[in-house]
Design brief:
By secondary structure, the chain is mainly alpha-helical. It folds into 3 domains: about 45 residues; about 80 residues; about 160 residues, Intergrase catalytic core (hpI Integrase, Chain A, Orthogonal Bundle). It is about 40% helix and about 10% strand. The protein has 13 helices and 8 strands. It has a 3-stranded antiparallel β-sheet, with helices on one face. The protein has a 3-stranded antiparallel β-sheet with strand order 6-7-8. β6 and β7 form a beta hairpin. The longest helix is centred in the first third of the chain and has 20 residues. It is elongated. The N and C termini lie far apart (about 110 Å).
Length: about 350
């Protein structure tokens, strides 16, 4: 029987064969016999055209999503892609990939972020661009798979300017001294001395530190870029780590003696209280990394060297610090000097006579 009704659910199911003899059985997702028959007839016609005329079969968004995620397995941003695809599948259930338009996709973009216990927030332009990037990548692969002919054009939303927040050594010293928790003070010193990210710092093990060589290592598992790198340690970092490693077992940083559980995040209350005590506004823990990078550039560290020290993937990621570098053009400023060399600035300039 080409179509049959399931007695329990009342849903009709198809059971047909392609012109090549392949058997296809699937649900019609309807309890209406007429709709099920129309679906059956349309599917049979599509299969005939594909076999006899060479037409490419239409693919659903679900098929594209499953194949896309399979190809993305193992990528470092897989969790983000998985979250984005889950959202897009809710927007286009049962839709053919070929039928999706730029307007539909843009109109379906999320607009707000809801976090339990926090006020609803409008999504930034950069977040919307990330959602578009994921579905655009999926559609580009569909073109490569010959499922569709082209990818629609999408708008690009304005993203906020890159934030670079740093403070002077005097202010950072006062901030660290204002922290009440000893492990927070130690972590802050090493963070601003090495530029290590929070996750890298709190995942640091004794085996990743070589005090004799004043060096540490970030493994590829612990690095944001998934690339291992060496972390040179200055005197400030060596002093803190030497003391901590005397009692450390599994991790260099724990919340207290005898505690060996990994710190998932800083003590926000202690950090914010210290910022208020020193009078610092709009300053976050990650800004210690910005401060470290800014100090390096101000003291002449080349951007390519800074890129390797900080574990950034591209030079563009460190260009945001370029304006802080001592200018290589400063030595040429006196080339056109004329006023101070003539002594005219010492003479009193005559006042213009009124007409």
């Amino acid at each position: 029987m080409a179509i049959r009704k399931d007695k329990k659910s009342g849903i009709w199911h198809l059971d047909i064969r392609t012109p090549g003899g392949q058997r296809i059985r699937r649900s019609a997702d309807t309890a209406d016999k007429k709709e099920a028959q129309e679906y059956h007839d349309r599917l049979k016609a599509d299969l005939w055209r594909q076999d006899k005329l060479g037409e490419a079969p239409d693919r659903t968004f679900e098929e594209a999503a499953v194949r896309f995620l399979r190809e993305c397995e193992g990528q470092r941003d897989y969790a983000t892609k998985l979250r984005h695809i889950a959202y897009w599948r809710e927007q286009f259930p049962g839709r053919l990939v070929r039928s999706l338009t730029s307007d539909e996709i843009t109109d379906s973009l999320p607009t707000h972020r809801v976090v339990k216990g926090k006020p609803v927030e409008l999504l930034t332009g950069s977040t919307r661009n990330r959602y578009i990037a994921t579905i655009k990548r999926l559609l580009n692969l569909c073109v490569a798979w010959e499922w569709i002919d082209r990818v629609p054009r999408f708008p690009r939303y304005i993203e906020p300017e890159v934030r670079v927040r740093w403070e002077s050594p005097e202010v950072i010293t006062a901030l660290i001294n204002a922290l009440r928790l000893p492990w927070m003070r130690d972590a802050a010193v090493v963070a601003v001395a090495t530029g290590m990210r929070q996750s890298e710092l709190f995942g640091l093990t004794p085996s990743q530190v070589d005090l004799a060589q004043s060096n540490a290592w970030v493994t590829h598992e612990g690095a944001k870029s998934k690339r291992a790198r060496a972390v040179p340690l200055n005197g400030d970092a060596v002093g803190v780590l030497t003391r901590r490693l005397k009692s450390a077992e599994r991790l260099a940083f724990t919340r207290g003696e005898g505690l060996d559980a990994r710190i998932q995040q800083i003590d926000t209350r202690d950090f914010e209280r210290a910022c208020r005590a020193v009078g610092i506004e709009d300053f976050h823990w990650h800004d210690l990394r910005h401060t470290w990078a800014s100090w390096h550039v101000q003291r002449g560290t080349p951007l390519m060297v800074l890129k390797e020290l900080g574990g950034w993937e591209t030079i563009e990621m460190v260009q945001k610090y370029a304006h802080l570098a001592p200018s290589h053009l400063a030595a040429h400023a006196d080339t056109v000097k004329f006023w101070s060399s003539t002594g005219e600035q010492k003479e009193k300039m005559p006042l213009a006579r009124a007409a």
